[in-house]
Write a structure and sequence with these properties.
133 residues; alpha+beta; Lipocalin; eight-stranded antiparallel β-sheet; 2 helices; 44% strand; globular; disordered N terminus
């Protein structure tokens, strides 16, 4: 019950703050995405940074539960080692994380959730450099 309440409060907090998203980068078409983050919500834990990202699809994708136009992701970056991990994901039918969520995935603490190296010159590299500065 506490987990459900925390998840619902987290969704409300995410949905109520779209005016604060800051553009980071756009990936190349045809399947490109626009990535945004919220600078005021970056959590710093030593070399680790936790951040929420908004991903708007330039081309909507067909998902299991409908057309996916945007996602909100929670990521952890190890700035010193240059590793990352996606710990939470919410997929939406409209841009900017709008509409009733289609899918929610919590990977935090999962046995398969391990930090991976950030590929050099990748989208994750661009994002990490912005988050870790």
């Amino acid at each position: 019950m506490k987990f459900l309440l925390a998840t619902l409060l987290g969704l409300l907090a995410i949905n109520s703050a779209y005016g604060d998203w800051t553009f980071i980068t756009r990936t190349a078409p045809p399947d490109g995405n626009d990535f945004y983050y919220e600078p005021s919500r970056i959590v710093r834990l030593g070399d680790i940074r936790e951040v929420w990202l908004l991903l708007n699809a330039q081309t909507p994708k067909n998902g299991d539960k409908g057309i996916e136009k945007s996602s909100v992701l929670k990521l952890k970056f190890n700035c010193k080692r240059e590793y990352y991990d996606i710990t939470y994901s919410i997929t939406y039918p409209e841009l900017n994380g709008s509409g009733t969520p289609l899918k929610t995935s919590n990977f935090e603490g999962a046995s398969f959730a391990r930090m991976e190296p950030v590929p050099p010159n990748s989208t994750w590299d661009v994002i990490m450099k912005r988050i870790c500065k």
